């Protein structure tokens, strides 16, 4: 049902927000610039999830740059890093490092461990998998539905990286592309997945000053470092509880319309709606930032409704 969205696209702004604000705002023509604000040095602490000494990482503005810095600290290849969790070394999908990093968060780095090849008989249309990715080319299993086909195969675990499907290498694919590939496999046929599980060692006890839970942080209003695939990172306030509920609603809409769940994508969509006054402006912003998805108009309107509810509190 065409709704006339995306009729006129606004030109993209050439300005980007710096990682650290260092310019005097509001300086008029001919006025002397004030002294630059001192740069804010952001330093984060990290450990390998299977056990290591603590390292320090700094000077990054994207997930890819962060992985490179981590690799340098621990003398490993960036390609060895599967994903990171915040404030816990366990494979906890609720603690995944995504587009936001709390300034007090401790980073645990999960690296490649055992490789395994699993044969799966697709007895039903749905395998019961939720797929996500680390933002730099590795898709992995975020959730397994109880009682599903995959749930019955105990060698397949949450946190496993999907490297290939029926011999086709899927490294570099986004999570929705891997999910689409699995969905398109024929019913009542056998297929093979090559998986890599994260390296495991001893259990690490909770840190004495571990970061608060995500709910605690949302309520506290503390700052985060927001990482972007394009453009510099920015230091922002944690989203309010109302905004967080809106992001969760958008995540639900993503599953309903697109068959995927991705809280980072939902957050990006929520951010795209800031400062927009109607669904047409919002649709243009989505095309500029997430044009590859080709979201249907009905989905855009529903997402705009969730953002509008958040604006009204």
Descriptive overview:
By secondary structure, this protein is of the alpha+beta class. Helices cover 27% and strands 22% of the residues. It has 7 helices and 12 strands. The strands form 3 sheets. Strands 1, 2, 3, 5, 8, 9 and 10 form a 7-stranded mixed sheet that branches. Strands 4-11-12 form a 3-stranded antiparallel sheet, with no helix packed on it. Strands 6-7 form a two-stranded antiparallel ribbon. Strand 6 (129-133) and strand 7 (139-144) form a beta hairpin. Helix 4 crosses helix 5 (263-272) and helix 4 (241-258) runs antiparallel to helix 7. The chain is globular, with a radius of gyration of 21 Å. The chain starts with 42 loop residues before the first strand and ends with a helix. The model is unreliable at 8-31 and 203-221 (pLDDT under 50).
Observed structural traits:
alpha+beta; three-stranded antiparallel beta sheet; globular; 22% strand; 12 strands; 27% helix; 313 residues; seven-stranded mixed beta sheet
């Amino acid at each position: 049902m065409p709704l006339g969205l995306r009729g006129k696209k606004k030109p993209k702004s050439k300005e980007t927000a710096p990682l650290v604000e260092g310019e005097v705002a509001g300086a008029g023509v001919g006025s002397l610039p004030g002294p630059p604000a001192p740069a804010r040095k952001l330093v984060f602490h990290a450990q390998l999830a299977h056990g290591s000494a603590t390292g320090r990482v700094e000077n990054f503005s994207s997930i890819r740059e962060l992985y490179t810095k981590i690799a340098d600290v621990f003398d490993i290849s960036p390609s060895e890093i599967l994903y990171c969790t915040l404030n816990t070394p366990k494979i906890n999908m609720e603690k995944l490092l995504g587009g936001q990093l709390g300034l007090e968060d401790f980073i645990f780095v999960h690296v490649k461990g055992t490789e395994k090849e699993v044969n799966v008989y697709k007895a039903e249309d749905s395998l019961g998998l939720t797929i996500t990715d680390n933002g730099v080319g590795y898709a992995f299993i975020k959730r397994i539905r109880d009682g599903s086909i995959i749930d019955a195969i105990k060698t397949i675990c949450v946190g496993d990286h999907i490297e290939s499907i029926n011999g086709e290498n899927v490294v570099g694919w986004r999570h929705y592309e891997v999910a689409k590939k699995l969905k398109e496999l024929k019913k009542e046929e056998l297929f093979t997945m090559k998986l890599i599980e994260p390296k495991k060692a001893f259990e690490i006890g909770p840190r004495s000053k571990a970061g608060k839970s995500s709910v605690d942080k949302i309520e506290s209003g503390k700052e985060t470092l927001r990482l972007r695939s394009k453009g510099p990172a920015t230091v922002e306030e944690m989203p309010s509880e109302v905004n967080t509920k809106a992001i969760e609603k958008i995540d639900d809409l993503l599953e309903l319309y697109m068959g995927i769940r991705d809280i980072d994508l939902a957050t990006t969509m929520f951010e795209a709606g800031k400062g927009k006054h109607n669904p047409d402006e919002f649709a243009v912003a989505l095309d500029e930032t997430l044009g590859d998805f080709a979201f249907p108009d009905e989905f855009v309107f529903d997402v705009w409704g969730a953002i509008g509810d958040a604006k009204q509190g």
